């Protein structure tokens, strides 16, 4: 391709689409390249969509976006082999005119999002893999090389929205490859059931939705979580753990998923379903300390490629959309001033991102990934088992005086963790949470 673009966006996921849309809406000449057959064909997510971040890009998205269910209930399960201890929040307030969170199916949603990008005026080329960044003699990024015959394409700035692997950035030495203890490998299945069966099993009516996040012995002492999300006619179910933990333990993702599905709390929810999709994908989990350099000479990096993922709150797509939008706004400002796309000028992106919830949230939990990793045996095995035994002891009515039950429970915690262990865990958790 001979013509030069203002911006090339690599990737048509949440971050890339947000960036390309914002840039095209501002009148910039945008080329977006996506290796998949269509936007969304390669993408995996639970998936919860956070409306606020999409509203900032497409205010009337509810009119035609392919949404599944709006969430009225969130459940958190702490699981052991046969039980779960739950924390539920359900509110009719979430049955509002403009709901705050929805379940979506990424393949459908990204296709719709990509159509909006095209309508805004961007050129979107699918089935085109960017093989490397084109750099000048001084290392400035001046465009990309692709697997198409007409190979190299030039632009003033390249937005790297290539997802968690970030191979292009790594190959160009702009960032390090994510380490195995900073990424989780998640596997997910889609279980199809009649709509009314899903609504009966999850206590839903109309388009109401519920999500279940689950942690505990299901990850066998590894740092990880499971999830069950109700869509209209299917249930999305998956589990993920740190790659380094899989390496260390020899456990397999499909082995974990299989056990999760057979758990007595989970099996009745998916009984009789037909599995039509199986996917595996990485999730950035290193948090604030794993964020690479976000900009340089002629480039910025957004979304999962920049490791912008809040594993504690299970938020990723909203950070991706927000970083994509903010990067585009920064580029637009530099362009409007007719300034060159130097690292110094593009640092505006980082300044703006630092002021957003994206960096503020990740900074808040900056010590959490390391804590969860080093204490995984305790948080994902010992405590869930102790809590489950305590709950059972508390609920079972068997003639044992309550005061004796309390003593038994108390002793079981001390025996498993000791006084100093219990205080240490509480202190470390409180410090990492603040
Ligand atoms: P992606 O969505 O991964 O998009 C990257 C795009 O770049 C892809 O389309 C890819 O094909 C393309 N690409 C890559 N390399 C090239 C190349 N060389 N040339 C051209 N194109 C390329 N987040 C939430 O907010 N809510 C959830 O419920 C949730 N659940 C999740 C469940 C699972 C199992 C997983 C794996 C993730 C989940 N996430 C969730 C995280 C969320 O999916 C990501 O944070 C989000 O998709 C990141 O968007 P992105 O655009 O940065 O990357």
From TrEMBL:
Gene Ontology MF terms: FAD binding; oxidoreductase activity
Instruction: List cofactor names only.
Output: FAD
Q: Which Pfam families match?
A: ETF-QO_FixC_C, FAD_oxidored
Alphabetical UniProt keywords: FAD, Flavoprotein, Oxidoreductase
Name all FixC-like C-terminal domain ranges.
Answer: 368-434
In terms of InterPro entries, this protein maps to: FAD/NAD-bd_sf (IPR036188), FixC-like (IPR039651), FixC-like_C (IPR059103)
Q: Does the keyword Oxidoreductase apply?
A: yes
Family listed = Belongs to the ETF-QO/FixC family.
Task performed by this protein: Could be required for the formation of a functional nitrogenase Fe protein. Probably accepts electrons from FixA/FixB and reduces a quinone.
Name listed for the protein in its UniProt record: Protein FixC
UniProt source species: Bradyrhizobium sacchari
